[in-house]
Amino acid sequence: MNKITQLFNIKYPIIQGGMIWNSGYKLAAAVSNAGGLGLIGAGSMYPEVLREHIQKCKLATSKPFGVNVPMLYPNIEEIMNIIVEEGVKIVFTSAGNPKTYTNWLKEKGITVVHVVSSTKFALKAQEAGVDAVVAEGFEAGGHNGREETTTFTLIPMVKKQLQIPLIAAGGIATGKAMHAAMILGADAVQMGTRFAMTIESSAHQHFKDTCVNAQEGDTFLTLKELAPVRLIRNKFFNEVAEAYQNCATVDDLKSLLGRARAKRGMFEGDVDNGELEIGQIVGLINEIKPVNEVVSEIINEFNQSIQTNFAF
């Protein structure tokens, strides 16, 4: 047992990222049933849809699971009330000020974790009273830190100053990477891309197929003026690149992005015109598998990595 498995009462120090359009109750329950911590991604759900997913997740697993909540969510108060009403015991917050809801959630017996991309924000989260921090390097998919600090740079820097448990995220999809992150000071790892590429992920098959065929160097961080996001190059990405070449303003970029662009790409399967959010490590993943197989492979490789003698 380490600090994170103890904190969440789980078997393995593996957390599934709460990704928009990928992280429905089926994925969260499958990861929890496999011994990790599954997270429902509230960022792509209307309040009542989230309630439905929480209720279905409770039926699909008897193990602990949580909800990831981007703080920029327009219905944030309603979302938080639903989480409390439905008896969710673990909440991961991101994209906002952890002070806003941490104490309120903890008073209701909920374990709170905040996602950050820098030491500065990790310390602010600790000061706000969170139970643990996810430090996410810019290799990660989806919305990302502006600093472009890589995971293997970020983790030891955060570890040096943080007193509470630390979860590493960004570019981690294998047992060896998990071992490396823990050597650098992480107590656990959070994996998004690896779990997005599973049978139980709620993403569209067209999106999964595109990701499976992605190679090293096919993802790019863009739209930093709005909110930095890592995307696979496609027709929409090329339109964004062209807009930059034409000196697009922030309003131009907002207009080009429009609404529901991520839903169109990841959930509806429009791989030409949608936002295809995924991490750099996607180039290493070339097969869609069930969650239990993925977790088993990661743990086996992790244990083998620990046992290997790297003496020279």
Layout of helices and strands:
Blueprint: H1 3-8, E1 14-16, H2 25-33, E2 38-41, H3 47-60, E3 65-70, H4 76-85, E4 90-94, H5 102-107, E5 111-116, H6 119-128, E6 132-136, E7 142-143, H7 151-161, E8 166-169, H8 175-183, E9 188-191, H9 193-196, H10 205-212, E10 219-222, E11 229-232, H11 235-245, H12 250-257, H13 261-267, H14 291-307
Parallel strand pairs: 1-9, 2-3, 3-4, 4-5, 5-6, 6-8, 8-9
Antiparallel strand pairs: 7-11, 10-11
What's this model, at a glance?
The protein is an alpha/beta fold and 312 residues long.
Task: Please tell me about this protein's structure.
The protein is of the alpha/beta class. It has two domains: 3-202 and 282-307, TIM Barrel (Alpha-Beta Barrel), CATH 3.20.20; 205-281, no CATH class. The chain has 14 helices and eleven strands. The strands form two sheets. An eight-stranded parallel β-sheet has the order 1-9-8-6-5-4-3-2. Helix 2 (25-33) packs parallel to helix 3 (47-60), helix 6 (119-128) crosses helix 7 (151-161) and helix 8 (175-183) packs across helix 14 (291-307). The longest helix is centred in the C-terminal third of the chain and has 17 residues, at 291-307. The radius of gyration is 18 Å and the shape is globular. 51% of the residues are buried.
- The tally of structural domains comes to 2
In what order do the strands lie side by side in the largest sheet?
Answer: 1-9-8-6-5-4-3-2
- Can you summarize the main beta sheet? 8 strands, parallel
Q: Helix content range of the residues, please?
A: 40-55%
Oligomer: single chain
Q: What's the CATH topology label of the largest domain?
A: TIM Barrel
Flag low-confidence runs: none
Beta-strand fraction estimate: 15-25%
Query: What would CATH call the homologous superfamily of the largest domain?
Result: Aldolase class I
Mean pLDDT: 96
**What is the number of helical segments per DSSP (H or I, 4+ residues)?**
14
Number of strands: 11
N- to C-terminal distance? 30 Å
Order of helices and strands: HEHEHEHEHEHEEHEHEHHEEHHHH
- Rg, rounded, reads 18 Å
Q: What CATH architecture of the largest domain do you see?
A: Alpha-Beta Barrel
